[in-house]
Amino acid sequence: MRPQLSIVVPMFNEEAVLPLLVQRLRPVADGLDTAYEIVAVDDGSRDATPVLLQRIAREWPQLRVVRLRANAGHQAAISAGLARSRGDYVVTLDADLQDPPEVVGQMLRIAREEGVDVVYGVREDRSTDTAFKRLSARAFYGVIRRLSGLHAPTDAGDYRLMSRATVDAVNALPEHGRVLRFVVPALGFPSDTVGYTREQRAAGRSKYSLGRMMRLSLDSVTGFSIAPLRAATWLGLVGGLAALVVVAYAVVSRFLGMTTPGWTSTVAVVAGMGAVQLLCLGILGEYVGRTYAALQARPAYFVAYDSLEVPDGGTAPAGADGGPARTDARGGPAPAGGRAPSQTTEVRADEPARAGTPPAGP
């Protein structure tokens, strides 16, 4: 039976917290009186997470395991779960239990009663986070709001409920390096919010290092605003005007017979202009890099396994030639008799080489 609710849970090396997640999430899902599925996306874990998921799936029929071939990142793992989900409503929930699963029922009720497409989980109490994280998060949302004009709910991360129409719209976007916490508000679908208290991580350690947070921030800015490009233009103009003033001063001083400082002022001017130029080049490079990545059209992830598509006792769906089935970049079956769609790349599951058999083609 097609589920009415899908709960997408990205995971990366979550063996410590996984049993605790099941203890809290399963009673909540069972008590919703709604047909559901749990889409656990294993983002290339290197610990015992895949083994634990298989064991839990034997006792929890609604648990669906989707495993990516390699670690693709948090946002890509969520995107993979959205692409594979089947529910009329889809909730994205991290596995660390900082966002309480008990709020899912309230989100679902609001979506149904008020007819909204998106219900954001908003962290009203973040006392469990460090002061640095709270301040940097508020500054981050403030900068995005000012640069892009996008009114994303403050303190709303990736804990949200979306209607099927919203999920289909997100899946249809060709954007690479998407940041879903800003992509979803940018769609402009009717929405509401639910407040909750952010909890301590139940077990394990956070996978979001400072470097990854900086990368997410940079992707957010360059993905939703051209303000840095305009800033580069203005910096270039200001630098040019400053250079003209310095040249005019030097010329006037020369005719008046005034002496000017030697190498100190020269080095200062050169250094200042060089800094402005390098900053402008760096900003332009970020946008050129995003354009380059989009032109390459490389998939953000590859699905290696989906328990929904594997027959009981089997290892992988069979292809027409008796080998593993061909799949597209999102793990779905590739179109018969032709190439995959332009936004996906056909890949072939791992298969031992066959002597005397030519390659299957590009």
Automatic annotation (TrEMBL):
InterPro entries, per the entry: Glyco_trans_2-like, Glycosyltransferase_2, Nucleotide-diphossugar_trans
One annotated Gene Ontology cellular component of this protein: plasma membrane
Record-annotated membrane-spanning stretches: 234-256, 262-284
SUPFAM superfamilies with a match to the protein in the record: Nucleotide-diphospho-sugar transferases
CDD domains in the record: DPM1_like_bac
Keyword Acetylation: no
GO molecular function: glycosyltransferase activity
Membrane topology: Multi-pass membrane protein
Disordered as annotated region, ranges: 314-362
Keywords: Glycosyltransferase, Membrane, Transferase, Transmembrane, Transmembrane helix
Domain (Glycosyltransferase 2-like): residue spans on this chain: 6-166
Major subcellular location class: membrane
Record localization: Membrane
Compositionally skewed regions (Low complexity) per UniProt: 314-341
Pfam family, one: Glycos_transf_2
Family classification: Belongs to the glycosyltransferase 2 family.
Protein name: Putative glucosyltransferase
Organism per entry: Nostocoides japonicum T1-X7
